[in-house]
C-alpha cells in the first residue's frame, strides 16, 4: 500500500521496507537469537520538490530509514524506488552514479567533518571522488562559490573545522552536500545539535536552498516545531512503523493517532500563560524493545485508547481523512 | 523570609591556551525556599559553569572561582573547608546532571549508589539506608524497587536512570536541587514524564529547584522566575510571565522570536539571531551581545550595561536601551 499512489511524479517510493539487524549470542558458534526490527514494514512516497518530515523518538527507526535510502544499509525486504529504479537492488557501480543525485547532511557538525582536512578540501572531496570538475582551479572556484552560497566567507576554505563554531561547521556540511548538485538530500537531525539562535539561521538556509535548486528533502528530526515549520508532509514513526502520515497542517491541527497526540502534548510551548492553561498528562511507560516488540499494535501498552483488539491485530495504515493515513484500529 | 540562596557577584575563569575565559563574569541572583528558578542560555553562556561554581566543583587548574559570595541558608559556601563542602554536596544541595549514563557509576549497583549517599551524609546503618532507598524509588515512580536496587545502570533505560539520579538527589532531604539540563538527552515523552516528576516532588517536599536549560518551552512550563545568560552574564531576569510577554533585553526578545512555535500559525520565515556566538577569549569592554544586536548604539561599546530594573516589578535587564526597545521595534515593524 502506498500512501499517495495517485499523486503524480513521485521521486522516491518506499514500499514494505524492512530492515532487521540480527542479534547473535556466543563467541565462536554464533547463534541467531532474534532480530532488532529497526524498520518493520514502512511505505511512503516523496514527490519531486517536496519536503517530507520523518519524526519519532530515539529507536523508532527514522535514522535507519534514512540510511537505507542512502544505501548505507541493505534492506532486509521491500523496495526503495528512486525515480523508478529500485535502490535496494543496485550493484556497486550503479550506486556510485546514484550517489551523485542523493546526498546527506548529518546531525553532528563536530564528528561529520574530518578534523585534519581543511574546509576547502572537505567540500571538494565529493567532486574529486566523482570526477566532477577535474580542473583544480575551477574546483577551487566552485568551493568558494559553495561557501558563499551557504553564507560563509569564501576564505574559510583555508580553515580547519576546529576553527569554526557549530553553526559554521553545519554550513560546511551543507556546502559539501550541495557540491554535486544533488536533487535529493536526506537531512538527518540536521539542526538538532545547534543552539536555538543558530538553528533558525540554518533552517532558513535549508529553505532558501530548497527554493533555489528545487531540492527534495527527507527531513528526519525529533523536534516537532521545526518539522512543522519546514515540511509539507509528515510521517510519524514509532518502533519501526509509520503510525500516521498526513499533510503538515492537517497532522498538527487534527492529529488522530494517540501516539501523535501524546507527542504533541509533551512539547512545552514557550509561553507561560499558554502553558498554565494546558491540562497536561504525560503518556505513561517507555518505548518497548525493538527486539521483542509487543504483539498487535506496538503502541498499545502505552495507549490511553487501547482495547482488547489492539493486543492482537496489527493495525495497517488507513486513509481516515483525505490523504491522512493512520495506523490505529480505534480512532475513526 | 530571607532567600535560601544568594549568589553575589560570582566570577569564574578558566586559563586556556587561547587566553583567559571568563565563563561566569559577575553573576548575582537569589532563590527563595521552595521556588523553581530557571537559568536559560545557549552553549558557552556560562549557565553550567555557574551551577558547578555554586557547589565549588570547578576543576582547578584550569578553572578558578576568582570572586564572589555564595550565601546558602545563612552560610557563605566560599568560606567552607573542603570537608564541610562535601557535606553540603548531596546533603543540603542535591544535583541532577544531563547525562544519566555518565553521572552514575557503571560498576556499582543502583542500590549501592543510593545507600552510599545516605550512609555518608546521614550516618545511617545499612538496613536503614536500604529501607530509605526503597522508599525513594517508590517516590520517583520506579516499581519493583527491590529488584531494581540490585541492577546496574546499563540495565536501565535513559528515563529510568534519570529517575535514579533524582532519587539520589532527594536522598538526604535537600533544601535545593540543581538540575543541569536534566532532560536534554531524553526523548520528548520521557522528558515530559521526568519534568512532571521533578515538579511534583519539589512542590510536595518544598525543595527549591534551579533548572538549567536551553529549552524555552521547558522554562515556560515549569519555572516561576528566569535568569537569561549570555557570554557569562545575566542579561535579563524576572518572572517567567514578564520575561516572555514583555522582554526588555534584545537577546531575550530575539531568542523568543527565533523559535518556531506549535501554538501559533506557521510563519513564512524564521527570524534568527544573526552572527555567531561570542568568542569568550576575545570579549572587549562593551556589551557582548552588541555585534549581533539590532538596537546597538555607540554607548554599548563603552562598558557592559548594568542589570537595572526594567518593565514589570522585579524584572531586570542589562541593556542601555531596555526602556525604548518597544518603540524601536515598533518603528522597525
Q: What order do the helices and strands come in, and which of them pair?
A:
The complex is a heterodimer of chains A (332) and B (333).
Chain A: E1 10-25, E2 31-47, E3 51-55, H1 62-69, E4 77-82, E5 85-86, H2 92-99, E6 102-105, H3 119-129, H4 136-149, H5 166-178, E7 184-188, H6 196-213, E8 216-221, H7 224-230, E9 233-238, E10 241-247, H8 248-253, H9 258-266, H10 272-277, E11 318-321, E12 324-326
Parallel strand pairs in A: 3-8, 3-9, 6-7, 7-8
Antiparallel strand pairs in A: 1-2, 1-4, 4-5, 9-10, 10-12, 11-12
Helix pairs in contact in A: 3-4, 3-5, 4-5, 5-6
Chain B: E1 5-16, E2 19-31, E3 36-40, H1 47-54, E4 63-72, E5 75-76, H2 82-88, E6 93-96, H3 100-103, H4 110-122, H5 126-139, H6 145-149, H7 158-170, E7 176-180, H8 188-205, E8 208-213, H9 216-222, E9 225-230, E10 233-239, H10 240-245, H11 250-258, E11 308-309, E12 316-317, H12 325-332
Parallel strand pairs in B: 3-8, 3-9, 6-7, 7-8
Antiparallel strand pairs in B: 1-2, 1-4, 4-5, 9-10, 10-12, 11-12
Helix pairs in contact in B: 4-5, 5-7, 7-8
**What composes the largest sheet of chain B?**
8 strands, mixed
Query: Mind summarizing the main beta sheet of chain A?
Result: 8 strands, mixed
The assigned structural class of chain A equals alpha/beta
Question: Tell me, what's the shape of chain A?
Answer: globular
Q: Which value, in Å, is the CA radius of gyration of chain A?
A: 21 Å
Summary keywords:
heterodimer, A: 332 residues, alpha/beta, Rossmann fold, 8-stranded mixed beta sheet, 4-stranded antiparallel beta sheet, 10 helices, 30% helix, 24% strand, disordered N terminus, B: 333 residues, 2 domains, 22% strand
Commentary on this structure:
- The complex is a heterodimer of chains A (332) and B (333).
- With 332 residues, chain A is an alpha/beta fold.
- Chain A is built from 10 helices and 12 strands.
- The longest helix of chain A has 18 residues, at 196-213.
- Chain A is globular and about 70 Å long.
- Residues 1-7 of chain A have low confidence and may be disordered.
- Chain B has 2 domains: 5-223, P-loop containing nucleotide triphosphate hydrolases (Rossmann fold, 3-Layer(aba) Sandwich); 230-332, no CATH class.
- In chain B, α5 (126-139) crosses α7 (158-170) and α7 (158-170) runs parallel beside α8 (188-205).
- The interface between A and B is large, with 45 and 46 residues.
